[in-house]
């Protein structure tokens, strides 16, 4: 056979068996006169994408492969729009890119509502149509980022235990992208033509030519290197092999059975569970540990909510490296920002929505705080008035299987949430299916603690643990942080772990240098870590924002080129492009950089706090007091402000494990004096570079 068909991927997966069936189906379809190349990739991981697990990907290019007498809509290359024609066309298939979602359900477990197919899992309906659509766009984004190519991807749902007759009966013979158990390749191409119309031009007489062409890549076949396209699906395995000791240890830590022999294990699903502690005591890690335990050892679906985009990025990377599935048909751990979650909830209940260009409902200016809280008030009013019942919640869950429909909800930094958000979460999930991480001394988003246990009885309605011991920092860093807290007037003390000896603190006056970077990098490699494990924080004055011609706001770290010259290759987490895609670094040779506002929950072997005094100055200048009618006026505005800001400043200082670097700009600043005094008290563990 002249069409070379290759399967690229692990033979140990169930998807590999389906890949072999698909290969045989292709072989039966082509004849000796056909020429070309096809690569089938089973069980692909789109490392770096929110939707990462793909059952089958098929990429192919053919030479002069003609399919005759096809009735289909075409794309008029002159009018540049799809048109319906009466006559059939002969279609040259040049190249294609397809993604398959494979389902083992039988016909009786599949239902249709309009254009959407649902399959049953644990007696719950799950939207398989939306799942398949999201996979298509995830693959497109992945190929654009890693190959520079942007193909038109057609998506299919392959029901391997449903006959063509049953599928036709179920869909009432309507046009669709569903494949039966023993579909033919001609059926596959016909369904692909419904998504990506063959292109046809008119002749000099204004008549459509007899031949149309079908392309996914819109390139000459000679310009499509299939082997190079297929290589990008090795990125996940390369990252898994190349991750440093810090990531390996973290995954090992998260895989421990948290709920075995713990005092709150028996309360799971019966009471609200709260992990409480200071910055650096591992609250977020314990929350992750709980989610991993529930998913891997108890086969549960868990959702983690945070408002921190950087933490979403970091945790999605860990979830991907751990290999936790993200499908609708199994246990999983998902993480989302609270704003994305509440957007889905508000749209699901049709609150504040309006039709968009394609007829779907969506929210407008949703991220504006005034609009957000107005809509949230409306939702809470509906709940208080009993206008949202259990049936509506069930329908909301069903139509949002991958964003809302979860068995357990885990909330990070719950003290920093709004009371109205708490009310909605309790209504949707019930307090007994919620696990919280609470740091009462860490407020970023608000100035007032959210009370999640109001009206509840300790030990009967909720189980709360308290952590006061540092999880990650070595002893010298814990000593430094405690001393810093004392110098800035905070009543704050962190207890080190006895076995965590060592740790370095470097205070650099002026700019970060090549010499310092090389020193840190050498230490990083010496301890079997990788550049990803070196983490930078920057104040807003080092981030440039600008708008493009369409009015979209973009931002970037404005010293990227300067740091590249120092040998510091950065993955820019200050960029709005990162925030909109919620991706994570796929190159372990890059360091991460985020604004200080995004530092909570992150960790690094080495952490560099750039222009720390500038960050403190910015926070002091932008502080706004929130009035609390129930609070006694025991502090002045300045006292409240300083306590809030300096408590805040402990968060970036508690991110490192081994090495903390602080750069300072202004020798006349209060923070400079604080650091100098701490240095003079213990010059053995602090390096002062001036």
Automatic annotation (TrEMBL):
It holds the Pfam family AAA_19. SUPFAM superfamilies: P-loop containing nucleoside triphosphate hydrolases (SSF52540). InterPro entries: P-loop_NTPase (IPR027417). This is Part of AAA domain-containing protein. It comes from Chryseobacterium taeanense.
